[in-house]
Specification:
- By secondary structure, the chain is α+β, with helices and mostly antiparallel strands.
- The chain contains 5 helices and 5 strands, in the order H-H-E-H-H-E-E-E-H-E.
- It has a single domain (about 35-150), classed as Glutaredoxin.
- A 5-stranded mixed sheet has the order 2-1-3-4-5.
- The chain starts with 8 loop residues before the first helix and ends in an 11-residue tail after the last strand.
């Protein structure tokens, strides 16, 4: 434009009054939230009795149940990934929860059908914990005795705030 004065247009004139779509949606223009938590499921684990590998099915079931959750932090805040082995072979099926700056959890002896609801309940709890740290009494009852490890977040090696 002559003189270097560009016409800001309608959007430009109201930009200072309108909410930023980036700020409103955690950086995604479609309003969705980038997953900040990850659930990792072993896809190689075989059930001791049946020999069935149920990890892929659990991944599918978790994705479905999480995406249908009424809380956006749970519905959109988790990625579910399968991995070929997590070295929990003595306690198949293994499932891990992790997020940047949070304690990570490894669960074993997971029944893909019976425990999926408790895994979703734990996902809700985990998403609400600033540091990921919780006691066994806070975890869903169906996961009692199935916690193989709670690994402190990097930079907090001994859960030093506990």
């Amino acid at each position: 434009m002559p003189g270097g004065n560009a016409n800001p247009g309608l959007v430009g004139r109201f930009a200072s009054f309108l909410p930023s779509p980036v700020l409103e949606s955690d950086g995604k223009l479609d309003g969705s939230i980038d997953p900040i938590h990850c659930i990792i499921v072993c896809t190689l684990c075989r059930d001791f009795v049946t020999g069935v590998r149920s990890g892929e099915g659990l991944c599918t079931d978790l994705r479905s149940r999480l995406s249908a959750h009424h809380e956006p932090a749970v519905a959109q805040g988790f990625a579910v990934e399968g991995v070929a082995c997590m070295a929990g072979c003595a306690r198949p099926l293994t499932v891990a929860f992790q997020a940047q700056g949070k304690a990570a959890y490894l669960f074993g002896s997971i029944d893909a059908r019976a425990d999926v609801g408790d895994l979703v309940r734990f996902a809700k709890l985990y998403s609400s914990l600033a540091d990921g740290w919780c006691s066994s009494g806070q975890r869903p009852a169906g996961l009692a005795g199935k916690t193989l490890a709670r690994i402190p977040a990097s930079g907090n090696p001994a859960g030093s705030s506990r």
